[in-house]
């Protein structure tokens, strides 16, 4: 059937308008350790779906407090699995939306090449002034660092040398700027495309601390939000998982 060119232009415009009308935006609270991969994922998500994810980064414990006080986040990408479970049990989130989007890995890292050995024996030498660690009461990576030092029998010895970050992002900055010679940080912060970007690191064996299972949950404010549903589906997809894996996470 012949369609006049003016009609074709109108039909295309209408189709584009309809697609835009169905696009939605969701506000996402993202654990600080997941900053780099989530920035990449959000960009791909917008290109592939038309939806937009507005990202805020910080400590899981602080996000929980904000959510409890009515902060209008639509999704929480937590640094642990207990906070989303608590949110679900308190009726603040959609219980059956919860899933583990990544399993984090802890590293002892220095910006100096060759400073950290592959077994982490540098911790036993005591030849350093400061070790950066995230607040273990707010950040699961900080708790994992404390558990690691306890396993090594070094916690009380090293505790006076702690430089404590509010979250793992601030902790990384302490180590990256040299304010601390060493830092217990997320592998994702120092790895890209499967390799350490700079400096030296010890990958902490996973049996030295509780698993860092990072769960996502849709909050009640976004239970009917199309972008929230689309993003949760996208995080399970091959493209997002390839990005997540490239930063050293497991599943």
TrEMBL record:
Residues 1-23 form the signal peptide. The keyword Metal-binding applies. CDD domains: PBP2_AvModA. The keyword Nucleotide-binding does not apply. InterPro entries: AvModA-like_subst-bd (IPR044084), ModA (IPR005950), ModA/WtpA (IPR050682). It holds the Pfam family SBP_bac_11. Keywords: Metal-binding, Signal. Belongs to the bacterial solute-binding protein ModA family. This is Molybdate ABC transporter substrate-binding protein. The lineage of its organism: Bacteria, Pseudomonadati, Pseudomonadota, Betaproteobacteria, Burkholderiales. The gene is modA.
